[in-house]
Design goal:
Shape: globular
Distance between the termini: 44 Å
Largest sheet: none
Number of domains: 1
CATH superfamily: Ribonucleotide Reductase, subunit A
CATH topology: Ribonucleotide Reductase, subunit A
Order of helices and strands: HHHHHHHHHHHHHH
CATH architecture: Orthogonal Bundle
Number of strands: 0
Length: 311
């Protein structure tokens, strides 16, 4: 006998709204974009010289903070490390945004072209174009080199862009956005940090908040409606992306470029309880969300634990 009032799980009840819910979210995000979008070329003072004694990234967020090696470094060397790590993170940000733009274009390719959902995706792509140019300009102004990811990770991402499921694309998008967002929210109000870095992170935080909302809403819908095989592949690809992300987060070449022993620095970062806590705290809002919608299961969850991003 079919019950007259079948029980529906909270996840399914929240996500199984009509398509007009997707359109309503997109319209609100478009309105927010119209109110709070920035042109970094005119919004920021790119000609101002760096201020003496100021950091390029908060010291507590640097990979070597509170390690034995950190305690042997001079203040000048620590600030120099912050300059190179900021360049490394900006380089990583560009890599992620190039991936994200391609995944978004794939997502909307067969969607109704006049829908608000597609229009917001195009708006987000335009945002990401500005962000990538902004990060590249920040690297150039900071005077440190760009730090591309390794050829292995570069080509793994090429595979991801080809085979990723739709929910997998949005899960990986959130992975790239939310941990950096956590760090940037601590950076832009920090008066110890260079004004230009604070300005860049402020713009990115404001605009990325919309991108995170868009990705979360779509991922929640997709995880309810996608076939079982696609949900399983999403869990695995997301876990593998977390593992790669944790390794690629800081390019080890930064240690060589500030006069440190690269092998020793990498070993101390891996052993650092402080660093592990920073990364897990930065990922917690995301991992809680992914757990809630059913992404953090099975082998995928084990990959997240292996990445060090999940306690």
């Amino acid at each position: 006998m079919t019950p007259s009032n079948p029980v529906v799980s909270p996840l399914r009840r929240d996500a199984l709204g009509p398509l007009k819910d997707r359109e309503e979210v997109a319209r609100r995000l478009l309105e927010a974009s119209a109110r709070h979008s920035f042109d970094p070329d005119t919004e920021l003072d790119w000609n101002a010289p760096p201020e003496d004694g100021k950091w390029f990234w908060p010291p507590e967020l640097l990979s070597l903070y509170d390690t034995p090696l950190w305690r042997t470094m001079s203040e000048e060397q620590r600030i120099e490390l912050s300059r190179h790590e900021a360049a490394s993170l900006a380089s990583l940000g560009i890599w992620f945004e190039l991936i994200l733009m391609q995944l978004l274009v794939r997502h909307i390719y067969d969607k109704p072209l006049t829908s608000s959902h597609v229009r917001y995706a195009l708006t987000e792509i335009a945002d990401e174009c500005r962000h990538s140019k902004m990060f590249a300009r920040l690297i150039e102004r900071g005077g440190a080199p760009a730090y591309p990811v390794t050829p292995l990770h570069h080509n793994l991402a090429r595979i991801l862009k080809t085979v990723s499921t739709t929910p997998g694309s949005f899960a990986c998008t959130l992975l790239g956005e939310e941990i950096l967002d956590y760090m940037q929210r601590l950076t832009f109000p920090d008066e110890r940090v260079q004004p230009l870095v604070r300005g860049v992170t402020r713009i990115h935080v404001v605009e990325e908040a919309r991108h995170v909302r868009y990705a979360r809403e779509e991922l929640r819908r997709q995880m309810v409606s996608c076939p079982r095989w696609e949900a399983g592949l999403t869990r695995l690809s997301c876990g593998e992306a977390a593992r790669v992300f944790s390794v690629a987060f800081v390019n080890p070449a930064v240690y060589t470029n500030v006069g440190l022993d690269r092998r020793e620095a990498v070993a101390q970062v891996r052993a650092s309880g402080h660093r592990r806590e920073v990364m897990q705290t930065g990922a917690k809002r995301l991992t809680d969300f992914l757990d809630d919608i059913g992404v953090m299961r099975g082998a995928g969850r084990r990959l997240w634990r292996a990445s060090g991003l999940l306690a």
